[in-house]
Design goal:
about 80 residues, mainly alpha, globular
Length: about 80
């Protein structure tokens, strides 16, 4: 399972309690799929699952708007 699939599964199952399936391009924040508490839970999940400390300054709309954006952020962090 790739990073995007892992993120989709977490968001759909844990954050949305299987009420909604998300796609890689869905605007998680703009479409209000997740709220600010969801973002914090998502950041904690990213840190734990991908062993990647996310500094407060990196928790931005650019980095966490979509699953693709999160995947791009993770790829840049691993360089």
């Amino acid at each position: 399972m790739d990073n995007q699939e892992i993120l989709k599964k977490f968001i759909s199952e844990d954050l949305l309690n299987n009420r909604q399936q998300v796609e890689a391009d869905d605007d998680l924040l703009g479409e209000e799929i997740i709220d600010s508490m969801g973002v914090m839970r998502l950041v904690a999940f990213v840190e734990e699952t991908f062993s990647c400390k996310v500094p407060q300054s990196d928790i931005t709309i650019t980095n966490f708007r979509t699953i693709k954006a999160i995947d791009t952020y993770l790829a840049a962090r691993s360089l």
